[in-house]
Amino acid sequence: MIPHTARLFVDGPMRRVLELAALVGDSGGALSLDDELRRLIRTTRATVATDWLCPIATVAALLDHTAGLCDSGRETPPEEFRQLLERAGAGTDAAAYLHSLASKLRILEQDPQDDYDELPLSRWEIDVRFPQLSGFGVNWVYGGEFPTLAESLEAAIDSEHPYCGEFLAPLAAEAQSALVLFPGERTMQDGLCPVVGWATPQALRQLLQAVDDHMRREHVALP
After folding, report:
1. Which residues lie below 8 Å from residue 92, measured CB to CB, with a gap of 6+?
2. What whole-number distance in Å separates Cα of residue 15 and Cα of residue 63?
3. Are 6 and 80 in contact (CB under 8 A)?
4. 79, 87 in Cβ contact below 8 A?
5. Prior bond to 162 cis, omega within 30?
6. If pLDDT is split at 50, 70 and 90, which confidence band does 221 have?
7. What is the rounded average pLDDT of the residues 13-21?
8. Measured at the alpha carbon of residue 118, what is the angle toward residues 117 and 120, in degrees to the nearest 5?
């Protein structure tokens, strides 16, 4: 049985940081650690809830705390964590590497990169930022059960009604966010479609219209 404290190592923000560091190392110089950490900071700051639950300062503190545990030998991290740490740090001293990541996060947080033209959304960012749009494609579009997007939307909405608020609100929010972040057909084709293949400006506007029509028709407060 995995002890509860193992969750500190095998999941959560520390794992995300180390996975990004390992991704950079595996890229052979194609990716920048600074850029990927800036994307992590940007993703954390994208919603108030995420920043409230685990701000970057807390992530850096966890890295420093774990470095201290590794250095003192008081705690033996799970093998999964040790392997990921070795891969990310390319065999360097574990404690020193964790401290260096914590320091880098603190420095980068002072000058966050929110300009999507200069630092485009990466594939992993899109996976994190647009899970509802991705899931909608898998569940309602790609299977070919419905010949048109309008029919897919109608079926999806009907399947959740009358308890559709939890489904439609985040779906519509992601659609609106995508229209802002990827303005125009070409921008969306290049930036969003590699992950959310069915998304076009027209399709997302159609989704928003369908959600708005449904809410006006079925969920208007009685006078």
Report:
1. none
2. 10
3. no
4. no
5. yes
6. low
7. 96
8. 65
